[in-house]
Amino acid sequence: MHTVYSLASVNEGVKISEISLELLLNYYEFSLTPYIFKYEVEGMPTIELTFPPAQFCHLLAIEKIMVANRKNFKNAREYRGLLGYDKIKNCFITLEILKKPPYNEQFGRNKRKFTNFHLIPNLLEKPELIKFDGSKVNPATEIRADIIFYNQITNYYLHLGIIKTKEEGNRFVSKSFFVHSKSGTSDGDKFIVNQEKIKITKIIKEKIETQV
Asked: For residues 204 and 35, what is the distance between their CA atoms, to the nearest angstrom?
């Protein structure tokens, strides 16, 4: 089983048996939440990206998995945002639970999110950016994002979708994380083609100052 520190040194996907959901949450708190990632780009204001605790469940599709086959459907809000975050932190939701019926089928569809989650910091260091228009994706997609960060890491396209917040300035938060194969006849680039590219001129990673 990996630790937060050993996971940070791995530059490829890991086996599901080498991680836990609690580990991924701790990794998120260690590698992403404490920082603001700033991207100076051509033609628009600097993109300021953060990873609040409330976005963790979105990135791993926890709600989607937990309401599989309409189980827990009435309590869907408990598996997103801070409620879902706390359930994972307190081990009420674990990988062992997700791997069992009725969740296992939906978990299987999203497994790559978990085994490649630790590569998000790598993606943030050397991303390609696009303004995302879902209507240009074929076949149609449920992905909702204003901008997508992507890059090819090992045999996959890693994508991080971000959305603009209502805060003053050009502030964004992470919204979705998805992984597609780039080998063979795969349509792994379907979220990238025909989209408007954004040129990055500078990347700055800053520690967020905590208020006492």
From this structure: 10
DSSP codes joined into one string, 79-101: GSHHHHHHHHHTTSS-HHHHTST
- Decide if 115 is inside a domain: yes
Residues 97, 77: Cα–Cα separation, whole Å: 18
Angstrom CA distances, 38 to 7, 147, 184, stand at 24, 14, 35
Using alpha carbons, select from 122, 132, 99, 169 the residue that is nearest to residue 10.
122
For 25-146, list the strands marked E by DSSP: 35-41, 47-50, 128-131
Q: Residue 18 CA to chain centroid, in angstroms?
A: 19
Count of beta carbons in the 10 Å neighbourhood of residue 129: 21
93 pLDDT above the threshold of 60: yes
pTM for the full predicted model:
0.93
Q: Is residue 212 part of a domain?
A: no
pLDDT tier, 77 (very low <50, low <70, confident <90, very high otherwise): confident
Position 9 in a domain = yes
8 Å CB contact between 112 and 179: yes
Give residues with Cβ within 8 angstroms of 61, minimum separation 6.
Answer: 106, 110, 113
Q: Is residue 211 part of a domain?
A: no
- Cα separation, 196 vs 204, whole angstroms: 23
> How many structural domains does the chain have?
1
Q: What percent of the chain is predicted at pLDDT more than 70?
A: 95
Chain mean pLDDT for the chain: 92
Range of the domain at 132: 4-205
